[in-house]
Amino acid sequence: MNLNHINLVVKDVNNAVNLFIKHLGFSLIVNRNSKMAVLENGNHFALVIWGQELNHKENAPTYPDNFHIGFYQKNELAVWEIYEKLKTEANLSFESEPKKIRNTFGFYFFFEKLMIEISITPFQDNIA
């Protein structure tokens, strides 16, 4: 069984699309009037970016404590490279620089109220 998609609710669809394309390796499938977009990562996985305004609410959603999505990198250098690029984006906030996290190495950052993790896979034999 493969994961088909994840639906993330954000206030600013275009900024989210830019983040996922520019820094996280996604490609745009469709952007529907900056209210909802669908992206893919080349592995038969889609990311749906749902604009908060479609929920008829003005504020960005609040996710549950510790809810986040994560992306594996092949090594520490790749983690540092993404971190350095992301630091140039004005709309992001960071918990810390990359460091040891549990049994891996990485960092967390926030887009709006969504936490995103970038780390090295602890399962090195399973990453391409």
From TrEMBL:
Keywords: Dioxygenase, Oxidoreductase. InterPro entries: Fosfomycin_Res_Enzymes, Glyas_Bleomycin-R_OHBP_Dase, Glyas_Fos-R_dOase_dom. Residues 3-113 form the Glyoxalase/fosfomycin resistance/dioxygenase domain. This is Glyoxalase/Bleomycin resistance protein/Dioxygenase superfamily protein. It comes from Pedobacter suwonensis. Signal peptide: none annotated. One of its GO terms (molecular function) is dioxygenase activity.
